[in-house]
Amino acid sequence: MKKEYLTLDRIEGSLLELSNLHRVSYGEVVKIISKDGKRSEIGQVIKIDEDRAVVQVFGNNLGVSTKNTKVEFSAHPFEIPLSSDILGRVFNGTAVPIDKGGAIYSKDVYNINGRPINPSAREYPRNFIQTGISSIDGLMTLIRGQKLPIFSGSGLPHNEVAAQIVRQAKIADEGGKDNFAIVFAAIGVKHDEADFFRESFKNSGVIDKVVMYINYADDPIMERLIAPKCALTAAEYLAFEKNMQVLVIMTDITSYAEALREVSSSREEVPSRKGYPGHLYSDLAALYERAGMIKDSEGSVTLIPILTMPNDDITHPIPDLTGYITEGQIVVSRDLFSKGVYPPINVLPSLSRLMKDGIGEGYTREDHPDLSSQLFASYSKVQETRALAQIIGEDDISEDEKLILKFGDEFEKRFLSQDQNENRDIKETLDLGWELLKILPAQMIDRIDPKLKEKYLGDNNGD
Length: 463
What we know:
Blueprint: E1 3-5, E2 10-12, E3 15-18, E4 28-34, E5 40-49, E6 52-57, E7 69-77, E8 79-81, E9 90-92, E10 109-111, E11 122-123, E12 128-130, H1 134-139, E13 142-143, E14 150-152, H2 158-168, E15 170-171, E16 180-189, H3 191-203, E17 210-216, H4 221-240, E18 245-251, H5 253-266, H6 280-288, E19 292-294, E20 300-308, H7 317-325, E21 328-332, H8 334-338, E22 345-352, H9 368-392, H10 399-416, H11 426-437, H12 450-456
Parallel strand pairs: 9-17, 14-20, 14-21, 16-17, 16-18, 18-20
Antiparallel strand pairs: 1-7, 2-3, 3-6, 4-5, 4-7, 5-6, 8-10, 11-19, 12-13, 12-15, 19-20, 21-22
């Protein structure tokens, strides 16, 4: 039952305080209406103390006073209508259409906070998602139902990488995109960034399989906290109601965390590391843990959150806590970017913890695990040799070490580098890896089963 109150106790910024309330619930949606009824805003109950409550307004506070405002309690949490018609649509951070396509009409409405997944009902992720990017598919394979973040920095091409993944991603074992959908959440982005994503999806012909939730940088701060929840709710609907394989890409999680810090400060909460609230970990976990697969359900939710590390600091609270929750990370390198490598993914600090269970015979190819291990080890040796060459000079290193340096240059030039529109399948990626191993001395290829070495290298096995 809706309830209306006509007097506020206190207004401070975007926070409203009321008292003498009756049966108000935490998280309940509130409508704030000006005295003349011409202006209104949406808010949410964020604190309850006996018969008192604090309401966080999503937009501005309308310039109201304590006595010229009507507050209407809706008696339900923040919910959004969902149907199959959301595919190909663009919404703002509160799930209101902004593409002139009309409202979504559905009898089914869903709480944006999601439905908790019973841990015993989770299915262990197995099959891999092919992104068409060799460094990801070959060395840090994305598994269906996984949460694998991209750690980037300001000015690096993480948006281009995200757009390329959206254009090219597919469930390889199902042979296409018929049952594949993308949910894209942009949090605190500039208008030109949002336009870039929209045009990229439209020009590549995947727009009909993409649902976009866009929160612009000049939108209200509270919308940044709502947008990823709306996107994940849509993903859960498509996955578990419509049995689709859903890939969720969210950028930028740093904007989400900054919004949390700002809202927490306005609530006068005790700050934790670098001013972020103490509940930052649980807030991030509440988003990330909505990815996964459920037993007896054909659908899945795979999550790629993108975050820009302040000052490229991977120990910053946002990437640090994200690393605890997720199953690996993809690290975008400023050094590789300065060399002209695209995508500039630094494979050494990157990993996919679920990769081992979704590659190999029956999934990708029987040589994938050994090949991946060998490429990692060899590229690690490249870094050591480059450091040595800087000290003693490249002319004074051994012939084997010169081959190692040649491998490193070719690895970055041919394996890591590819065009933004180049879509490599997994077979092409693995074959390229074997071709590069032929550069190395034979004694360095020590992480591959002899049978596989004979099959893929033959007589030319690094001699």
